[in-house]
Each structure stands twice: as C-alpha cells, then as structure tokens.
Amino acid sequence: MKNLLFNYLLLFYRTIELILRFFQKKTSPSIACYLQNIFLFLHGSKLRFYFDKKNKLFFAKEGDLIRHFNSMERGFYYYKRSLILRGESLAYSYCLQNIQFNPDDIVVDCGANYGDLFLYLKGKIKEENYIAFEPGTLEYNCISKSLPKAKNLNLGLSNHEAELDFYISSDSGDSSLSEPKSYSKIIKAKFITLDSFLLSSNINEFKLLKLEAEGWELEILEAAVEFIKSCEYIAVDGGRERGKKQELTLHKVNNYLKDKNFEMIDINGPAYRALYKNLKLKKL
Q1: What is the pTM of this model?
Q2: pLDDT value of residue 284
Q3: How far is CA 77 from the centre of its chain?
Q4: pLDDT-based confidence at residue 100 (cuts at 50, 70, 90)
Q5: Tens digit of pLDDT for each residue in 210-244?
Q6: How far are the Cα atoms of 85, 137, 189, 210 from residue 196, in angstroms, in the given order?
Q7: If I label 116, which of 2, 58, 147, 260 is the partner at 20 to 30 A Cα–Cα?
C-alpha cells in the first residue's frame, strides 16, 4: 500500500513538473522564474531563480552562491532545488571526494560550461585559483558574471593551436569540436594546447585537471605532455560523446594516462568518468 501511494505521488509530482515546463516555455523569462520559485517555495528550498533583462541571462541564487545561465530548461533542470547539491553531484560524478584540497591549490576546468565545478570547490580553493576554459561565448559570459575573480578563458583546448569549427549545442551542454548528432550552429573558436598554456602561465604545480571535451579528451592530452607532469590529479569524462556515433573515449584515455605514469584511483562506471593520480609527482 505504501509503495502504491509513493508511486501515485511520484506520478503526480512529475505531471506537475511537465505542466510547469509547458507554461514556462509559453511565457516570459521573468514569469517562468516566478513559476519555478513557487515550486521551490512549496518544497522548502532556499534557491531562487531570476532573469537579468539587461544581460538577457537567467541566474540562480542560494545564499552567497550565484550561477548565471542562458538556457532556461538546462538551468532549471540542473539546479532544481539546490546549487550546493548540483556542485556535489558533479564533483562526486568525477570521484573528487578522493582529493584533499587546500586553499592555494590550482584547478583547471576544461569544458567549464557554467562553472558548476566551483560550486563544490568554493571554500576549498581560492576563486582566483580556478582556471576555466570555455570556448562557447554564451557560457563564457555566464562564468565571467558568476565567478569574476576566476581566470576565465574564452578558449578551447585541442592538440594544436588554431581557429577551428566548433559545433554549438548549448541547450544540452554538448558543444564540441567533434560533430555531434545535433547542433544549433557552427562558429569559429580559438583553441590552444595545455602545453602552450603551461608555458605562458608561470604556474609550476596544478592540483587537478577536470577534462570534459565531448569526445575530444585524447587529443587534448596528446598536447599536454609537459602539463600533466605538473598535475597531481586528472578527472576525465570518457562517455559516449564523440561524434555522430557517440563513441566512448575512456578506454583510449586510460591507456594513454597509464603510459604517462598515472593510476586510476576511482571510477564512476555508469557515467564513464574516472579519476587518475600522477604516480611520479610528489604530493603538493
């Protein structure tokens, strides 16, 4: 009886969510946020959504945490009832609970999108020690507003430096150098290598590289020979995201990092995400 009641309540809840989404798509951004906030209030959440008319961006606020985003559906879905939970969920999906961070640690986030990784890192490292690579213009603007003290770079990473065709899929967060199954447009974006970044950065030690490049992970690592020598941990998304065939990349990345003296210390199997530790690097 209890299970049946639970199933009915779950069905009712999901129906309400679907109805809410329908009306949000039909109304103005500000009213869409108002409707979402009613839903949050009924759940006892402290999170609230707003629309910045001047910059034409949505933002979510919870305490002193703020995240700007341009895709309403994506932002409402990922942030749902808590920015804190979004940060923890993302970090745990990369097995980052295995890392002990210090305030002076430097983290490089490849494919930073809205900078959600820092929702977890806030209070663990200094904001200015967070380096975000994001070639998508809209996403880069969002990060810059959410994390003004961070080192935000409107650049992508690849195996050579060039201006390349970049397939934009902002609503799903699947923008990539590798042509995906669906995308809204193609733009020209500037890409560099991690080794060239290392030479210009004047930084000798990195705590973590989070690598999410929608199937382009191996190419980035191939041009990061010197960079990874100075990096203690590498967290990789090797899921089914490469090209139209949605190929896995984790097995190739795993073999490459193993040859470079990295050991897999944890894996999130369902998401094909793994955390690697540099065996030759002394503890930072």
Answers
A1: 0.89
A2: 42
A3: 14
A4: very high
A5: 999 888 899 999 999 999 999 999 999 988 877 67
A6: 35, 22, 17, 18
A7: 260
